[in-house]
Every structure is written in C-alpha cells, then in structure tokens.
Design a protein that fits this description.
CATH superfamily: Class I glutamine amidotransferase (GATase) domain
Number of helices: 7
Helix content: 25-40%
CATH class: Alpha Beta
Number of strands: 11
Strand content: 15-25%
Shape: globular
Low-confidence stretches: none
Structural class: alpha/beta
Radius of gyration: 17 Å
CATH architecture: 3-Layer(aba) Sandwich
Amino acid sequence: MTDSPKAFHIVFLLFDGITQLDFTGPAQVLCRIPGAVVHTAAKEIKPIQTDSGFAILPSTHFADCPQADLLCVPGGFGTRDVIQDEATLQFLRDQAADAQYLTSVCTGSLALGAAGLLRGKRATSHWAYTSLLEKFGATYEKARVVKDGNIITAGGVTSGIDFALTVVAEIAGQRMAESIQLSLEYDPHPPFNSGHPDVADPKLIALLHERVYGKTVQDLTDIIDRQ
C-alpha cells in the first residue's frame, strides 16, 4: 500500500472584477500537484463576478480559510478595490505569515504590495502597471516569472501558467512539471507576435494606454498615494 501524499493547501484570493484566467490558469496546473487541495477564499461566500461575464462561487470565506501552503493573489480591474480593503489586506498578511509560497499573477502583486509584503523584494506585474511596484518598496524585474525568496510574482495573465509550472518543478520535480505541461498541451505558438510591448506595434501599445490602461494606472496611483 502506498501512503497518500501530504495535503498541500493552495489558497486563491477571489474578488469581484478578477481576471478569471489569472486564477484558472495556474489553478489548472497547481491542482495536479500530488496532495493538492485547492481553496478559493473571499470576504463572503457569494458569487464573485469575473471579467469574462460569468461568476465563480468561493469555497470559503476568510475566517474559515485553512492556512495556505501556497497563497496566490490573481489580478484584474477589481484590484483597485482590493488594495483599499483592510479586511482583505489583513487576510493576506495573516496567510503570508506561515505560507511556504506567497504568489501573485498580473496586478495581484499590487495587492501583495498594499499588504506590505513586497518591501525590499524583486517583483513583476502586468506590463502596464509595473511602474507602481516601486510605490510599495519593491524593485521591478523584467521577467514573466520573478522569484525572490518564497515570493513568486508573475507578469500579465498567461504568465500565471508559467509561474505555476515553476512552482510544480520546485515542489514535485521537473519531471512532474513537464508531465503536467504535456497533459495540458501547453505549447504556445500564438498567431500574432504582439504579446509583449517589446515586440508589439508601438501604435497598439499607445492605443491600449489611451483606451484602457492610462486611466486605470492613474486611478491606482491616486489611491496608493492617498494611503
């Protein structure tokens, strides 16, 4: 008889306005770690509205959430509210105290920063928001996945899959990570070469700043500066 693997508790923070792939991408990978137990935590157990037109029901609220071995904070436009919500920030601090891994995807790193968990750390975020990291005492490092001690931050959205595979390799070995990658057929060959500002048309970058990111970056800057 083979002993069952020790439970490895993975906690994802959920909040209205979450970018669902920030959560579901790494969740699809991390749930395959031997012994993985996934928890989705929110202030209240009620449907959480994602940015994709559907809702997710959390499995637990903050008070009943088990201690995470790995805590993950996804991003999304709802980050604006998260960084102003003391109950959520305190939940992150409490979980981070004993978590083996403290992680984020996209603008989730700003929530970690607002909770005071990135001071003196190297970190990344979605490319449009990396300039805000220094406001939390962090140093931006240009990479899809940045590891500094037990803190692992991922860049925008799809980078969450890369971070999750990185964690699996550390916890369960590269062979396990490779098998999960293969089982998910994660073999990106995008039809267009415009997935990062380094390669995208500058006019496209300017358009996104004008229509999407310029205002949200300014709003976040104002919120952070007031705190």
